[in-house]
Amino acid sequence: YGKNTIKFLRLHKEGKKHFVKEVEVCTHLRLTSAQEYLDGNNSLVIPTDTMKNIVLVLAKKNGIPTLEQFAMDICKHFMTTFCQVAYVKTYVQEVPWQRLHENGVAHVHSFICVPDGIRFCEAEQCRNGPLVVFAGIKDLKLMKTTQSGFEGFYKNEHTTLPERNDRILCGELFCKWSYGECSDFDFDCIWTKVRECILEAFSGPPDCGEYSPSYQKTVNRIQMCILSKVSQVQVIEVILNNTFYNVVDMKNLGLTNDKEVLVPVEAPYGSCACTLARKKFLEA
């Protein structure tokens, strides 16, 4: 049981310069006894309102240096404060506020919300077990208008999809990775590196791109790029929900439409998912 959707803004001031972190937190506990379920005995139950207040107090006292550190602080607090807690899991996601710049100068107290992917993390721990940390990015919308196709696929009497060697590749990406047991990582730096790998692998070189024969290959290319360049990542899951575009037939309007006006196909949509892990992590 636990408390979901604890939303708040943490404002930190250093002289005239302000810093903001707006987050949403979900914290769940499993207790050493199930007596509240079986017998209606609530003597060990930590009220969810108390859980909410603990999260707010920790934000006040410790700040939010990184999402991962804040999630770890919450887990450690419940494990060290309440002996009846057998397991704790905390999820934290961030509202993408970025500092506003005017003529190249960073504003001291103004921000803009830029929805270019939502950062999130999870931390979980069992009693007498390691603190495990996950991180990720979701709702990251990506598109490239060429250098993508889909050919040579299996066909039978139900196949109506034509082969294409030049199409728009567009999708909404979810990426989650595991660090294994918690270490003293620079979580901000790692998250930025992973995001850069995603963009690099999706798009290819800036002057020419890189051909994608399928959504599946794009997912694999993203994962392999991250594992090759970010050594701290042990397991990585990527889900790419596809958005398809159809070319509008304008013959009745007396116009030739050479893939210049397209409409998105809202539903149904495809989805590709894959999880990769380092061999040494699996052997461990």
From TrEMBL:
Binding positions for urate per the UniProt entry: T48, D49, F150, R167, Q216, N242
Gene Ontology cellular component list: peroxisome
Keywords: Oxidoreductase, Peroxisome, Purine metabolism
Any Pfam family matching the protein: Uricase
Pathway recorded for this protein: Purine metabolism; urate degradation; (S)-allantoin from urate: step 1/3
Compartments where located: Peroxisome
GO molecular function terms listed in the Swiss-Prot or TrEMBL record: urate oxidase activity
Top-rank lineage group of the source organism: Eukaryota
UniProt enzyme class: oxidoreductase
E.C. code: 1.7.3.3
Keyword Plastid: no
Residues annotated to bind O2: T48, N242
Binding site for 5-hydroxyisourate: T48, D49, F150, R167, Q216, N242
Annotated GO biological process: purine nucleobase catabolic process; urate catabolic process
InterPro entries, sorted: Uricase (IPR002042)
Main location: other
Annotated catalysed reactions: urate + O2 + H2O = 5-hydroxyisourate + H2O2
Family recorded in the similarity comment: Belongs to the uricase family.
Job of this protein: Catalyzes the oxidation of uric acid to 5-hydroxyisourate, which is further processed to form (S)-allantoin.
The protein's name in its UniProt record: Uricase
